[in-house]
Amino acid sequence: MARIGVYGGTFNPPHLGHILAAREFQKNLGLDLVLFIPAALPPHKVLPPDTPDAQIRLALLKLAVEDLPFVQVDDLELHREGPDYSVDTLRELKRRYPNDKLFLCMGTDMFLSFETWHKAKEICSLAEIAMAQRQSDDPVALHAQARAICQKFGTTPVIISNEFLEVSSTTVRRMLILGGAQAYLPEKVLHEIRNRGLYGTDRNRKNLPFDQLKQESLALHNEKRIPHVIGCSATAVELAKKFGADPVDAARAGILHDVTKALVGVDQLHLCSEYGIIISDFERENTKLLHSVTGGAVAKHVFGESDAVSQAIWWHTSGKANMTTLEKIIYVADYMEPNRDFPGVEKLRRLAYTDLDAALLLGLEMTQDHLKNQGAPMGKNSIDAIAFLKQKKG
Ligand code: ATP
Asked: Residue 80 sits in a domain of what CATH number?
């Protein structure tokens, strides 16, 4: 009796996280074969922009697993009419392999929603459930879910814990545009994507008209951040008109200021090496500060923005001594745009339209207080900015 892993997903695109997971499933479950089964992405599902058609994803997946002798790619879901249910796939595989043992392999996101799957009970009768636990996953939640599945469906899922890569296809798609995707893609897959210009890699994003810049850059965000980014851009334009900066630069810097923010710390580090950004020990330990410098680099190298715009983005989180008017505007606009809601924001808004330096100083000092309350240190650039503004004020 062979042991067969069934690993389904959209693989849009396939990445090293999938490969590593397949290796671990194979090793830990003693699998003779792992079947990768790309989903058809049925028409009712909202597809991310630039998703290639199923045959192209299939070709990418075949390239990705080429060197894994225990893997086969199976396109059975791509031929099916109607909704794409795992239970149908498992029924079909059971017909094909009646005497073998099937393991349905999945990551955390799939596992945590398992009981909502169509005919989950039947799935459990056809295959054992196996899941890849990443280090960042909450083990309590996973084990509670394993117990719930056991109680409801009478089967105990196997949880394999390992240093699985903290990456998803969504992140890889973003990094194909922002930079650093080579960290997560098999070389041949990256080459094929670039060769065919997939996932928007063929588009020139330099010097776009504002509406296009907005559309291209907002596509790189997590949905919930979009109102903030739009608010920041509009506020920056108002402040630019008031204080004599270029409103066009202000709008562009505002819309791009958080363009890399959806990437987590380790991916910020990948971007830093992509753009040759040398970072301090403080920044390495506080990677959430890095989105502003990587944002500045992306504004320049991906979107072809001017140094003025790129620098305004670069300094929007820390500030520094002797900032330009545009740099101050982006810092303050980010702090006070209409979606911000915290004690003191009204005072900041009032001040921003009368005295930009005073508003900047207030923002920096509020950050300093917040960090102090959290017992966290403040970076040198911010301390310099405060000292500079105080001295200027006399
Ligand atoms: P996204 O959801 O952003 O499209 P994904 O890579 O999570 O990306 P799928 O291609 O559908 O999406 O993933 C296929 C299967 O691999 C799913 O069961 C998913 O939970 C699992 N998986 C995805 N990424 C990882 C990873 N880094 N480590 C382990 N398992 C993963």
From this structure: 3.40.50.620
Residues in a beta bridge with 4 = 33, 102
Instruction: Enter the DSSP assignment of 232.
Output: H
The domain that holds 323 is classified in CATH as 1.10.3210.10
Q: Which amino acid is at 323?
A: M
Q: Which of 228, 211, 210, 207 is nearest to 330 (CA)?
A: 228
What pLDDT is attached to residue 58?
97
For residues 311 and 327, the answer to whether their CB atoms sit within 8 Å is: yes
The residues pairing with 103 across neighbouring beta strands, listed in sequence order, are 5, 128
- Own/partner contacts of 210-217, CB < 8 Å, gap of 24 or more, are 210/248, 210/251, 210/252, 210/255, 213/252, 213/255, 213/256, 213/303, 214/255, 216/303, 217/255, 217/256, 217/259, 217/303
Do residues 199 and 56 lie in contact, with contact meaning Cβ atoms separated by under 8 Å?
Answer: no
Residue 334 lies in a domain: yes
Q: What tokens were used for 248?
A: 């066009």
Atom 30 in ligand 1: which residue has the minimum CA distance?
107
Domain assignment present for residue 189? The answer is no
Residue 104: how many other CB atoms lie within 10 Å: 25
Residue 215 falls within a domain, yes or no? yes
The finding on whether 164 has its CB within 6 A of some atom of ligand 1 is yes
What DSSP character marks residue 219? T
Give the pLDDT means over successive 10-residue stretches in the chain (394 positions): 95 96 96 95 71 95 97 93 85 97 94 92 96 89 94 93 89 98 98 98 97 98 98 98 98 98 97 96 91 98 98 98 98 98 95 97 97 94 98 89
Query: What is the pTM assigned to this prediction?
Result: 0.94
In testing the pocket of ligand 1, which one of 11, 18, 77 has its CB within 8 Å of the most ligand atoms? 18
Say how many domains are in the chain. Answer: 2
User: What's the pLDDT at 313?
Assistant: 98
| 23 CA to centre of ligand 1 in angstroms | 14
Instruction: Please tell me whether the peptide bond between 52 and the residue prior to it is cis, using omega within 30 degrees of 0.
Output: no
